[in-house]
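[job 4471] stage=fold_predict status=RUNNING
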Amino acid sequence: MNKNHPQLKIALCLFSLLFMGQAHALKVNITKEIDSVKVNHNGKLITIQRDQNTEATIDPAYAKTSRACPPFCAQPMNVAEGVRTVGEVEVISFMGQSLKDGSGLIIDARTPDWFEKGTIPGSINVPFTLLDTRFGANELTIEETLEQFGGVNNDEQWDFSEAKTLVLWCNGPWCGQSPAAIRALLKYGYPEDKLLYYRGGMQSWKIFGLTTLKPE
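[job 4471] inference complete, writing structure tokens
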């Protein structure tokens, strides 16, 4: 959409107003205009901001530069035709718009053992194993998951006209869990323009010192 489009101008204006209330109140902001963002996580309002300690370093669990490949191989920037890859600023924007108005979901596509170690606030854990038959998914788990995302099964023909826009992520550019979930969704007919791939995942999120939390 053209930047001069009236609807886009309104959206950008609202986005700026949403986040600029206390811009620059912190020592370390997310962007020049955004210091923090609040998201609802399991009924609690969580503030996402960057670590204010400018001497902080990344969590050692995400500091490795080498992992056995396979399975931990570099993922392509374009994970699938028509699926847009996004970064931290776009995820933050999504939280303030699509997540807030209910039109979108942020999906932690990792297995539960990873989810329990910590997640991005506002995310729901929907493991890729519930969608990909190569890793144990079956008709029931696939149907329940697609319905959770807003799909409607009409006599075995899925209708995704009211489906949510999804941001899917996993552990980082070397993690294949969210790409597997995205490819499975596309196979079932999920609209490509309703899928966003946060390639950086938890590793990039932690590099920026952004808030994480452990599920209760």
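[job 4471] summary: Residues 1-22 have pLDDT under 50 and may be disordered.
[job 4471] exit 0
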